[in-house]
Specification:
1201 residues; alpha+beta; Ubiquitin Conjugating Enzyme; 6 domains; six-stranded antiparallel β-barrel; 27% helix; 14% strand
């Protein structure tokens, strides 16, 4: 429909709209603007203006900005009009006028006679009883006056049972308090989502708060380690099954409370789908649902997913937050002090009281100024009296713990000591916490690793399997409760079941007398089947005999017949090398169709009791029972929020071992490259910022983003000791070398690092770790003892990678004079001088499978390579010179040691872009109009601190933009509808993508972004329009360029002006300076598009006006234009017009713009502070009104790498 439909509707309203309170309906000065006069007896007339936010999308995807230009309007009226604006989404002209008239009448007359204008029900309805009073959000609140109640709001504080809870939750004011607190959370910058669901649904009281991850300032390494993207949202789900308690009631809740339930996770959208929210709160978590996999018709972007640390954060919020809050409020504790006090009480220190703990929260580190950089994480939501906003407190506390999760134990939640900060959270030094984490799975989420890092999980299990297969397992996972079957001897067997087995059909048949015993078996259980020999008199233990026995898994339990799968078969003692299968016939290799009598032994003995040989054998069998990673991943992906403990495909021992294998690895390993495929062309991942250049395509690349924290700390300390002869830090503090080792050693290496405690290949050049300068040398040392094992291939049977060898690229301290040897190999006897950085593995995966586990998109902002020591360059596969990405070394460490942080030149990339498409407008709206209507007012006399809508100053016709003015634009730019591409040499040269974004300011998304839906909608619309224009227009003719793929902050843009006519003095200056574009920065405040953006030049520097320069660029780099002030700006102006205005100013010849080359200033960037000062001076001198957003945009926080 668009603007044409708007004009038709406005014309109809002008001639026929009938309302006693509305007169003089007319068209405004701007397209999509309504103006009318509101009249109420006893009140002066009020001129109302309503400006469409997107007239081209009217009415379906358009809303209205509502304000007044009447001087006698009060602040309350301005607040009301802003509230009304939030309800105009999708409404036509008549509906907007009617909405404003009805609501203003109700406000000014203090009456709510018309039920259709009721926003929030009053306290009276709740106090008077009735079923409707039981709901925090009455269905009448959004019924819009009709009787159709098919859909109702999904918040109902009271379940049909538990009358005591109903009375507590239904106390007067609880519903209004809930709505007010949600409004407060929204004003603090959080997105609120309350799903509307069919009222027949039993799950009620679920809603969410979310905030974009880019606002949290999380470093790139942490984003990668925690599987987060800056474009995603951290989401806290809240469920109130028994109503919204008061602060007094909440802090008294027990640790097993279910009154207020929280779930922390992430979502690509600020509004998770109801179905994924609901699933997170499903109560029956004790048995696996064998129904069809979870199906959700919602968009994948709406799926709520747990975080890496959700298994630790959820218990913290649900079980400990009430008591921690009680200690904070009663004793003025900080969060850390309250946690420590509670921990001491739980350990039996009942004599420790609040008086013995420090009282001043500022004394605690979690309140220090640099602890949290952003204001919304520093605010005090706790000390507010009885009107405590539980949602804000919980969200802030959860975000604080998320951002600093590596500083806290994942089990006991206590603050951990130590200066070195890991990128992945772990547990403290308490042995109980370590046991609970590794053995019981407290605080960890193996499911998260399987879903997000399947190739790494496959790698870890494969290394463990090789280690135990060759008896090279240094650390045995004790205390896991792993079970094995102890059959005893044939003469005196242990407790067992006598059964019959058909090996052909893989069926076990139980006699009816043993019904009670065999019903204890369930799917996933491991059993040992022993074939009964003729001679049952031997006293030799069965495991040390030649009796045929099979380790099996129960697959499908039945009544009297169970199906099974054979995992391993043995016909010799565990410690004896068997013959090959073709020389030993067994029931597994030659199954018969008949029934065979066997003894069935359950696995119920602890593996910890076994000798090393028997222990390793059982661990091998147990590892072979771990299902393929892709099979586990498929199960979890089809059932979001589910746990492997509910899956019948794994028993407790298998899951416990898998947990230990993954969780005990403290190194953070990342899959950088795809699974190699010989059928694909080489270099398929060469464009990734994390790929090592110079390696052959048949090696799969993994990166140690961080080794074990202890090893990293020791290595960092050694690097800081290195100095040049003049005492300055060494230019190349480290160098790189290769280390090859058999597969059975890598399980230990990735956990504890390289050492030389054992000798495998001799020590001809001294004691120490041997490292090669060429890849081929180290590759020769990868063969070990597991190849040709009596268990067959060394690869884990269920592995999809089928790893056959591995070589590591190591970073070593660059001090060859102190090495044991440097020729022909580096030999280093100081293990703290060595740190693995990359792992290259030879895999034998099928080409079809390679597409299932692609590497993640890199989060790093710089694509470049480390400058290696020229005397020790690394040689890779096929004698190629190796180029090592910057991502090999953490940014923070490079900065501390003075190493390169970014590189110049084209190809720099900022990941996690804002992807704009037709659906983005809905995603960026933090609340829908039903929720806005629901939360607009609750009838209480509260002082709602909403931002006042600024009155309209001037229209677009006053700005002068539409008036023709002399310019030196290229021919093509003067009429884009008749584009003629400029001839080569007539304009300055420009190549898109050549700008070094890493050298420009990078700002965190402002805290108020989510609370500015009007600005978000306007900016989103501008991005879509500008993308269409740029993609369909020749760049040289267009004259401006935005790299939308690298735009990750909607309130901060970088724009390049280019292709200037070579007849301009400015173009000549740019050519001499080697400058291809004028780099502009645009910053948007929360009032955009009511207020203009702040526009300034970053580089190059211009000759000041006082020295003869022109172009309307101030001495500080700000643009001197009335258009960019309140005096000349109109909300109807597009950003393309802003670009053209700035460009025309630069092309103005009276006087011409010139670049500044005096005192080398031409090579320096303008900074934001001098630009703000210069803008204020220029606006004051011309008498232009300075926008209120100028101060706001100048304080936007920088995002540190």
């Amino acid at each position: 429909m668009g603007l044409k439909q708007f004009n038709l509707d406005l014309r109809a309203a002008t001639s026929s709209y009938d309302d006693p309170h509305v007169t003089n309906v007319r068209k405004g000065d701007s397209d999509g603007e309504i103006v009318f006069t509101y009249v109420l007896e006893g009140q002066p007339p009020l001129d109302i203006q309503a400006l469409s936010t997107d007239a081209d999308s009217y009415p379906r995807h358009s809303s209205f900005l509502i304000f007044t230009s009447s001087d006698h309007a009060t602040k309350d009226m301005d607040k009301w009009l802003q509230d009304f604006a939030a309800l105009t989404e999708g409404k036509n002209v008549t509906e907007v006028i009617s909405l404003v008239s009805r609501r203003l009448t109700a406000k000014l007359s203090n009456k709510m006679d018309d039920p259709s204008i009721t926003i929030i029900s009053s306290d009276e309805g709740e106090e008077n009883g009735g079923e409707d009073g039981d709901s925090a959000f009455d269905s009448d609140d959004f019924s819009h006056g009709d009787e159709d109640e098919e859909y109702r709001i999904d918040i109902s504080p009271l379940p049909p049972r538990r009358p005591a809870a109903r009375r507590a939750a239904g106390s007067p004011g609880s519903a209004h308090r809930l709505k007010r607190h949600l409004r407060d959370a929204k004003k603090e910058g959080f997105c609120i989502s309350v799903p509307f669901t069919k009222k027949a649904d039993d799950y009620s009281g679920i809603f969410s708060l979310s905030i974009r991850i880019s606002k949290l300032g999380i470093p790139e390494e942490a984003l990668e380690a925690w599987d987060l993207k800056s474009s995603e949202y951290v989401v806290m789900l809240v469920k109130l099954p028994m109503g919204y308690p008061s602060a007094t009631d909440f802090v008294r809740l027990a640790s097993d409370q279910s009154t207020v339930q929280f779930r922390f996770g992430k979502c690509a959208s600020p509004k998770p789908s109801y179905h994924t929210m609901k699933r997170m709160f499903e109560s029956d978590q004790n048995t696996e649902s064998q129904s069809a996999p979870y199906e959700d018709s919602s968009n994948d972007n709406d799926h709520f997913q747990p975080l890496y640390m959700s298994a630790s954060l959820n218990p913290l919020l649900n079980q400990e937050l009430p008591s921690l809050l009680r200690f904070r409020r009663s004793d003025n504790f900080s969060w850390d002090q309250a946690q420590a006090f509670k921990f001491n009480l739980s350990r039996g220190n009942h004599f420790g009281d609040a008086a013995s703990s420090p009282k001043n929260p500022k004394d605690d580190q979690d309140s220090s100024p640099d602890w949290f950089k952003f204001e919304f994480l520093q605010r005090d939501y706790v000390s507010v009296g009885e009107d405590l906003n539980i949602f804000l407190v919980a969200m802030q506390f959860g975000l604080q713990r998320l951002i600093k999760c590596t500083k806290y134990c994942m089990v006991c939640h206590q603050r951990m000591d130590g200066g070195f900060e890991a990128v992945k959270p772990f547990v403290c030094g308490n042995l109980l916490c370590l046991y609970q984490y590794l053995s019981l799975g407290f605080g960890q989420s193996i499911e998260h690793d399987i879903i997000n890092n399947p190739a790494v999980v496959d790698l870890l299990v494969s290394f463990f399997y090789c280690a135990v297969l060759s008896n090279r397992l240094r650390e045995f996972p004790q205390g896991l409760g792993l079970k094995w079957a102890d059959p005893g001897s044939l003469k005196d067997p242990s407790e067992h079941l006598d059964v019959e087995v058909c090996f052909k059909d893989k069926k076990i048949r139980f006699p009816g007398a043993d019904y009670g015993s065999h019903k204890k078996l369930k799917g996933g259980d491991r059993v040992l089947l022993v074939i009964r020999p003729k001679d049952m008199s031997t006293t030799v233990p069965i495991v040390h005999s030649s009796v045929e026995r099979h380790t099996c898994i129960i697959e499908s339990p039945g009544n009297l017949e169970y199906s099974f799968r054979i995992i391993a078969t043995q016909t010799l003692p565990n410690n004896v090398l068997p013959l090959s299968e073709n020389e030993t016939k067994t029931h597994a290799t030659h199954p018969s169709t008949g029934w065979v009598r066997v003894m069935l032994f359950q696995h119920n003995r602890d593996i910890d009791e076994l000798q090393t040989v028997d222990r390793d054998y059982n661990l091998i069998q147990l590892t072979r029972m771990i299902p393929p990673v892709e099979e586990m991943r498929s199960y979890l992906m089809e059932r979001p929020g589910s746990s492997l403990s509910l899956w019948k495909g794994m028993n407790n021992s298998t899951l416990a071992l898998l947990n230990w294998i993954v969780a005990s690895n403290r190194s953070f390993i990342v899959q950088d490259g795809p699974i190699p495929d010989s059928q694909q062309s080489t270099g398929q991942a060469a464009d990734s910022p994390s790929i090592v250049q110079g390696m052959g395509p048949d090696w799969m690349q993994f990166r140690f983003a961080q080794g074990s924290p202890e090893k990293e700390e020791a290595f960092f300390k050694e690097l800081t000791k290195l100095k040049e002869i003049n005492g300055q830090p060494k230019t190349h503090p480290s160098l790189f070398a290769w280390h090859g080792s058999p597969l059975e050693n890598w399980h230990s290496i990735i956990r504890t690092g390289l050492d030389f405690s054992t000798t495998l290949h001799g020590r001809a050049y001294g004691n120490g770790v041997y490292l090669g300068k060429e890849f081929s040398t180290s590759q020769g040392y990868t063969m070990g003892g597991v190849h040709g094992s009596h268990f067959g291939s060394s690869a884990w049977p269920n592995s999809r990678l089928k790893i056959s060898s591995a070589v590591s690229m190591c970073e070593i301290v660059n001090d060859p004079a102190r090495y044991v040897s440097t020729q022909p190999h580096f030999v280093i006897d100081k293990i703290e001088w060595i740190q693995c950085r990359y792992l290259f593995v030879k895999v034998n995966a099928s080409s079809l499978f390679g597409t299932l586990w692609p590497p993640k998109k890199s989060v790093f902002s710089s694509k470049g390579y480390l400058r290696q020591d020229p005397q020790h360059r690394l040689i890779g596969d096929h004698s190629n010179e190796i180029q090592i990405p910057l991502s090999a070394i953490p940014t923070a460490r490079r900065r501390v040691l003075g190493q390169q942080v970014s590189v110049s030149g084209p190809g720099l990339t900022r990941e996690n872009p804002i992807l704009v498409d037709e659906a983005d407008e809905d995603v960026l709206e933090e609340v829908d109009r039903e929720l806005d209507d629901l939360l607009a007012s609750d009838g209480e006399d509260e002082d709602s601190q909403r931002q006042t809508v600024r009155k309209r100053r001037r229209t677009s016709t006053d700005s002068g933009l539409g008036e023709p003015r002399p310019s030196k634009l290229t021919t093509g730019m003067q009429d884009r509808n008749n584009i003629a591409q400029p001839q080569a040499g007539t304009t300055t040269t420009f190549r898109p993508g050549g700008l070094d974004l890493a050298s420009l300011p990078k700002l965190a998304e402002p805290t108020w972004a989510a609370s500015s839906p009007g600005a978000l909608r306007a900016l989103n619309r501008e991005i879509k329009d500008l993308q269409k224009i740029q993609s369909s227009t020749d760049l040289a003719a267009l004259g401006w360029y935005i790299d939308f793929d690298k735009l990750d902050n909607m309130f901060h843009w970088i724009v390049e002006l280019h292709s200037f006519d070579m007849n301009l003095p400015l173009a000549e200056d740019m050519k001499r300076a080697g400058c291809s574009s004028i780099v502009l920065e645009l910053r948007f405040g929360s009032s955009y598009p009511i207020s203009p953006p702040f526009v300034r030049v970053i580089r190059p520097r211009f000759l000041p006006f006082a020295h003869g320069g022109g172009g309307h660029v101030t001495i500080g780099g700000a643009i001197c234009s009335e258009l960019l002030t309140n005096s000349g700006w109109s909300p109807a102006l597009s950003l393309e017009k802003v670009f053209l205005e700035v460009r025309m100013n630069l092309c103005d010849m009276d006087p011409p713009a010139r670049l500044d080359k005096v005192n080398g200033l031409g090579s320096m960037d303008y900074n934001i502070f001098e630009a703000i000062d210069a803008f204020r001076r220029a606006a004051t001198a011309h008498g232009w009104e300075i926008p209120s957003d100028v101060s706001m945009v100048s304080s936007m926080a920088s995002l540190l790498n």
